[in-house]
Amino acid sequence: MRAERVADQIREEIASLLDYETKDPRIGFLTVTRVRVTPDLQAAHVHYTTLGDAAQRRETMRALERAGPFLRRQLASRLRLRHTPELRFHYDQAIEQQERVERLLQEIAAERAARPADRTDDDQAE
Q1: What 3-state class would DSSP assign to 26?
Q2: What is the residue extent of each domain of the chain?
């Protein structure tokens, strides 16, 4: 599908631009996790993760929004599109949610390991 190809190209280009072309230190260690483009190619939703607490994430979001016009101009010159999509940035919470689920599973496993068995194998043999 064309929108998926465009989204992949945008993800690659934005990641490269953020690594090598932007000078804003607030962007820091950022990973573009995925890009979703609307079917009409008018908007690109750029999902990213970054290190730091909530305050640092807000600063990163501000830096990305400020860099948005620059990134869009660079995309326009690099991609062969009639219209360059408007960039909308979203913090991707999927990794945090995955870590939370893993912690919960580890806690459950630890509780099960600490709990004595209701019946032992000797009790079952009788």
Answers
A1: coil
A2: 2-115
Domain 2-115: state its class: alpha beta
Q: What is the separation, in whole angstroms, between the first and last Cα of the chain?
A: 64
Q: Provide the whole-model pTM.
A: 0.74
User: In the sheet that 86-91 helps form, which strands lie side by side, from edge to edge?
Assistant: 30-37, 43-50, 86-91
Model confidence over 14-40: pLDDT tens digits? 999 998 888 888 887 889 999 999 999
The predicted-structure confidence for 33-79, as pLDDT tens digits, reads as follows: 999 999 999 999 999 998 888 888 899 999 999 999 999 999 999 99
Transcribe 66-122 into DSSP letters: HHHHHHHHHHHHHS--SSPPEEEEEE--HHHHHHHHHHHHHHHHHHHHHSPPSS-HH
Helix, coil or strand: residue 50: strand
Q: Give strand pairing partners of 89.
A: 46
